[in-house]
Amino acid sequence: MKILNLYVGIGGNRKLWGNEHQITAVEIDPKIAAIYQEFFPNDEVIVADAHEYLLKHYKEFDFIWSSPPCPSHSHIRKELAVETGQNEAIYPDMKLYEEILLLKHFFKGKWIVENVISYYKPLIKPLEVASHYFWSNFHINQIKTKCRTHMGTIEELEQRKGFDLSKYSNIDKRKILRNCVEPEAGLHIFNCAFKFKQEKLI
Predict the structure, then answer these.
(1) Other C-beta atoms within 10 Å of 84: how many?
(2) Using one digit for the tens of pLDDT, what is the confidence trace for 41-64?
(3) For residue 32, how many C-alpha atoms fall within 13 Å in the half-sphere facing its CB?
(4) Taking the C-alpha atoms of 193, 33, 177 and 88 in order, what is their torsion angle to the nearest 10 degrees?
(5) pTM of full prediction above 0.85
């Protein structure tokens, strides 16, 4: 299959997909894109605006995964930062819903859009799986996962997500790791999309 993976970060969702497919990964930050390329040397990595790339190229793929930036939607940011004065209120980034509507009405393949649990009632109803919101055109079975270790140390996050960032510098390792979708959740959803054998995940 030809797969488009958008806003890839270091590839948490993609980590367990294997190398049987032709994967195009889009990441806007060159430093992070370079790390992704080291982890997944068989993928084509493009440094670009994922939102614009999706609009121009969505017809070229069989499966699309999109994880648009989430802070402006996050209930954690609102509850722990805005309400305590650490951050200012910001507009929700509506590119999230633009992509959902584009894929729902124009894309012919399988697709999924992932984001955080929001502080408001979602404008388009998602499915909540593994502490994430998902919008898709296929059914996703529920899954039990280990604790996300979201507030843990960098070392705890590395162990939880299965990435070693020790050799990299001048990057926000905590932010990068916290933005990673849990690899087992990424594999579970990938399998649901194509009705592959479901793994027993804990």
Answers:
(1) 8
(2) 999 999 999 999 999 999 999 999
(3) 23
(4) -100
(5) yes
